[in-house]
From TrEMBL:
PANTHER family: A-KINASE ANCHOR PROTEIN 14 (PTHR35075)
One annotated GO molecular function: protein kinase A regulatory subunit binding
InterPro entries, sorted: AKAP (IPR053084), AKAP_28 (IPR025663)
Superkingdom of this protein's organism: Eukaryota
Pfam families recorded: AKAP28
Transmembrane segment boundaries: none
Taxonomic lineage of the native organism: Eukaryota, Metazoa, Chordata, Craniata, Vertebrata
GO CC terms of this entry: cAMP-dependent protein kinase complex
Record key words, sorted: Kinase, Transferase
Name of the protein this chain belongs to: A-kinase anchor protein 14
Organism whose genome encodes this protein: Leptosomus discolor (Madagascar cuckoo roller)
Length: 130
């Protein structure tokens, strides 16, 4: 079962509301409690037929021995508001993982904790090789 939330309508959208809804959406993901994250707004993009709002959610697993993690994993969100469709329709939400080109639709994709682990493991392997 793919979990989703009720996304706000385009006419009710604000940058802060977008950040809050991303947090709400992330809370539906099944990730271990040891994962911590923070969310930041990156930029607004004006397109011909829509407006896009970009956010980054940075994930890590700090521990007592290593409170500053060796690597982090980022998930990038795009909230898109159509200029053509009625403003009362919900915003469209997409996300991509750092180092991946695949674009996931929020309502059509089940997030996997393994994706975050893979990003961090690959970064650590790369750092050790350098």
């Amino acid at each position: 079962v793919i979990k989703n939330i009720q996304w706000t309508a385009g006419n009710n959208f604000t940058v802060e509301r977008g950040r809050q809804q991303i947090e709400e959406f992330i809370s539906t993901w099944e990730v271990h409690e040891s994962w911590l994250h923070w969310t930041e707004f990156l930029q607004e993009e004006e397109l011909k037929y829509s407006k896009r709002y970009r956010y980054r959610v940075c994930w890590s697993v700090p521990t007592r021995r290593k409170p500053i993690p060796r690597a982090t994993a980022s998930v990038y969100f795009i909230i898109e508001i159509s200029k053509i469709k009625p403003a009362t329709l919900p915003v469209e939400v997409f996300f991509t993982l750092e180092s991946s080109r695949l674009i996931h639709r929020a309502e059509q994709c089940q997030f996997r904790e393994k994706w975050l682990k893979d990003i961090i493991e690959n970064k650590i392997i790369l750092m050790e090789r350098l």
